[in-house]
Amino acid sequence: MKKIGIKDIALRANVSTAIVSYVMNGTRNVKPETKERVLKVIEEFNYRPNAIAQSLKSRRTNTIGVIAEDITVFNTPEIIDGINDYAEQHDMHILLTNLRLQKKVGYNYADTASYQKHAQNAVSDLVSNQVEGIVYIGVHPRDLTGLIHTNDKPIVYTYCYAQNECSIQYNDEQASYDAIQYLVSKGHSRIAVISGLMDSIPSRLRFNGYYKALTEFQLYFDPQFIKVGDWGGESGYQLLGELMELPDPPTAILVMNDLMAAGALRAAAERGISIPRELSVVGFDNREFSAYLNPRITTMDLPLHDMGILAMKTLCNRISGKEETIEEPPLCKLIERDSVAGPRTSIK
Amino acid sequence: MKKIGIKDIALRANVSTAIVSYVMNGTRNVKPETKERVLKVIEEFNYRPNAIAQSLKSRRTNTIGVIAEDITVFNTPEIIDGINDYAEQHDMHILLTNLRLQKKVGYNYADTASYQKHAQNAVSDLVSNQVEGIVYIGVHPRDLTGLIHTNDKPIVYTYCYAQNECSIQYNDEQASYDAIQYLVSKGHSRIAVISGLMDSIPSRLRFNGYYKALTEFQLYFDPQFIKVGDWGGESGYQLLGELMELPDPPTAILVMNDLMAAGALRAAAERGISIPRELSVVGFDNREFSAYLNPRITTMDLPLHDMGILAMKTLCNRISGKEETIEEPPLCKLIERDSVAGPRTSIK
DNA sequence: TGCGCAATGTAAAACGTTTAAATAGGGTGA
DNA sequence: TCACCCTATTTAAACGTTTTACATTGCGCA
């Protein structure tokens, strides 16, 4: 049983293939009664044009490539969801590639050459499949500038940094500033920070926001209040201990991700420090688990879905050669839960 | 600047396009020195053949479609990761569609007609893009049998049920049997269960495993030990209460997902019941958060990655018309953490 | 010398569409 | 009646490959 094509439809409807094409695409006037006839045959045979052939001729595939550094990392599915929404609305398709960086045997972030080869292969593959552009979804810890080239197909980076390229980010600095402002509004003034690794860009930005807020609100500043972790739960556990052993400990802590915050909570529990009564904690990332910890962590939700949409919007603008409209980055949003209260001293 | 094609390469290498094609695909002998020459030109111009044109002519796209009911649900990214691994190893590509069932405005699981239209559109779209087969990733609560037709392209379902179709599942019954066996090995004999909704297939299967183990190990059976929740955290909270107020409460509970287990933990904490000293809990799903709860939950890990691989393997076999080899379903694996100990009475 | 055959190469059709250009068949106005 | 235009339609080229069928060459061998 041969697959039916446009010729078969044309034959049955007693018209040329051109008419069938015009009817389907509405690219030219067709006499209503002919149109009717064609439509009926299409319906009858449940004919769907071969998108491959269409693409070849029209040189438009309506397909964009998505490269995820690791789809199992928490940020990625939400971003893809955003991308998919935009794509669906604009009749585009998504060709997905997962780099799987975290699990690739022998891969480590320092090995730029190996990364580059891997990523470049993915790009070449997508380009050879005639995607019209690429969205790259990272997991942060690396500046990707110049590592990838796409042969002048547009590429938009998100959740990672590519200094001279087009990259979509939420506003880290603003987010951490907002968190401090929130703590201040609750009455805190002795606010510590548990940062991620200091050679990472988000750490620096979030620290900027922290420092800026401290200055602006004229809060107590103590270098001993600045602890640098490694993003892992253990370091949160460790550093909370150090902080609370200070002769005059903070009443609130901004922790730069929920993983470290979870560790900090465990440390607090072991030391009999009640959160939020004796100590307030604000996390970052709004990870799924943070709503199930005890207490449920107040944390910064990342606008991942919006970033996906914005990335697609930007990409599609560049594909159609439109003016680069500079959009505001999407904002993080504080999720108020149970790990923040007023400072102890303010309670009667 | 015109995109260079096979003709340009042929011209520069002073051969016909056929030779270039033969060199690239190794489909015929080419004199080594000619081959050399062609290869050099290809290299020089960094030529990559247009996969769309290749597909049109060869009628093979090396692309499979993936339909996810909701990519933001925890199971999906891991399954996709498995699919991607297999695809990468076999030089296939993934065209992704996210149905986004949970968030679609107005969508609810009971509305089969609306679901069907939505899903069928996605399928038609993929088929028109000439995918060679489809993997469907569900989120469980529905029998999909007969709702979708693919015009005789093969389709493999996973993480959902489609009774008369080809569907890949882990062994729910075995998993829950194993969990009970584990509790027995720790000395428990009074084991309750908090089930999911009873009209759901996994609930039934997991209950089978529970009941089978109870019978086989000749454990105490009490209908009051069977509680039916709705998969949500609140119901876990509620039902743990009911269980512990029984005159003679269980010493261990099998909870059919980690969400309800989290609720149960909270209820236990409020009642001053120490886990695992006074009560053991085994969860299901190995959700990310379950490693961060207090205590960290012992739970059943689902072989999601393997299911993705197996789904692809099955699909590709069907694509190439190979014998349907019936493979064993991948198995769940108990992740031992801190929510299980021996029953209280066995402690001196 | 002539023949068959292997090795190497080329020309051109084909894949299923879109679309520019050509054509047919009427009106219309002068 | 003719020149012109408009609409509806068809013809056929093109998109960038693969692949079939055929052509050429050179070699071994009777």
TrEMBL record, chains A, B:
SUPFAM superfamilies associated with the record:
lambda repressor-like DNA-binding domains, Periplasmic binding protein-like I
What Pfam families does this protein's entry cite? LacI, Peripla_BP_3
Q: Key word Magnesium present in the record?
A: no
Where does the source fall among the domains of life?
A: Bacteria
Q: Where is the HTH lacI-type domain?
A: 4-58
In terms of SMART domains, this protein maps to:
HTH_LACI (SM00354)
List GO molecular-function terms, semicolon-separated.
Answer: DNA binding
Q: Which UniProt keywords apply?
A: DNA-binding, Repressor, Transcription, Transcription regulation
* Protein's name according to its UniProt entry: LacI family DNA-binding transcriptional regulator
This chain's source organism reads: Paenibacillus phytohabitans
